[in-house]
Amino acid sequence: MIKKKRVFDLVFCFNDKEILESRYRYMYNFVDYFIFIKFDNDTNNFNDKVMVIDYYDDYQSFDESNFKELINSLDSIFSFDLEDIFFISKSFEIPNLDNISDCIKQLNYTPIICEQTQLMWGNKNISKTKTLGTQIFSYSQYLYIKNIFEYMQNSLLHINHNDKLCESGWNISTFSDLNSFIKNTMFWNNLGVSEYEIIDSYFTGYDFSNNKIIYDNNINVPIVFQSLIQKPEQRDGLKVVISDDISNLEFGDYKILITDVQQNIDNIICYKVVYPPKVLYGEKSYVDFKLDYKKNEILRIFQTLKLIDEDEIHIKINSERSGSEFICKFSEIKNGTPSLMF
Question: Strands, E, within the chain: which ranges?
Fold first, then answer.
């Protein structure tokens, strides 16, 4: 008798009760068995087709030996067939059921890695950078690829021409409140950014690669996940001051200072422009070179700050003879010619 090909959804879970339950409802009719590998003490209510495995260590310590032990123990229960299919992913890496069957059809000698759209807090807001998420493999591949779990994890970090990609699904890791997202990100260690950078992205409309979030009306997130969507409010505008002499400046509500002199000022983020050593720069004098260099350095700093259109830029120049101040919105610099303004 020919066995029916079965689909097993192996899911790593942490602090994700609502996402996990939504994933279960979304994939219920497609998946034969869910295997939830939990790194927390959350309890969920599932009707059937679910096996929960408690793993009382951190995700970073889960390795090839743990994976083989897991598959072998499951095989004793389910008696895997060579054609059985496995998904392996974190709970928030959701395959798109509208095209996932086409991805499965591409399985031959190597696993498939799903390239997924990174949703940023909302169902229409996305990062321009896609993420690598759900991995798909067959039981026969598990048997003949040595250390398949390590192989797949390395592929997520260092994709190469031998790895097969299939565009399918969404990364909805941001579909949680800000504090939970920070906690989750620190657990998975999957962004490589600080808590400050996460909060900054949340309130400024940037992704975690410092790119402005894209609004895409063609993104159709399954309705089961839409109740989890977050709606961050944009932070209030702040003031950035650029000055070559701060001895007589009144900062008021300034938050960021860009200057030539190292400064440590309470409640102010200070950036010192560090120039290359004095060498010859063709026909241009070193003084002129420093002015050009400073313009470029200021623009580079702007790129790291995740400024919003309403932020104010104050350029203050103080000298023995006179002082001057130029004020504009960041939107004017972003859409104009910054070098002329400076």
Answer: 7-13, 33-38, 50-54, 85-90, 93-94, 112-118, 125-126, 131-138, 164-171, 214-215, 239-243, 254-259, 269-272, 312-318, 323-329
End-to-end CA distance of the chain: 78
DSSP conformation class of 5 = P
Strand ranges of the sheet holding 323-329, from the earlier edge strand across to the other edge: 269-272, 254-259, 239-243, 312-318, 323-329
Amino acid at residue number 150: E
pLDDT digits (tens, 9 = 90+) for 199-228: 888 888 889 888 889 998 888 899 999 999
Query: How far is Cα of residue 11 from the mean position of the Cα atoms in its chain?
Result: 19
Task: Delineate the domains of the chain, giving CATH numbers in brackets.
Answer: 7-228 (3.90.550), 239-341 (no CATH)
- SS3 state at 255: strand
Read off the pLDDT band of 1 (50, 70, 90).
Answer: very low
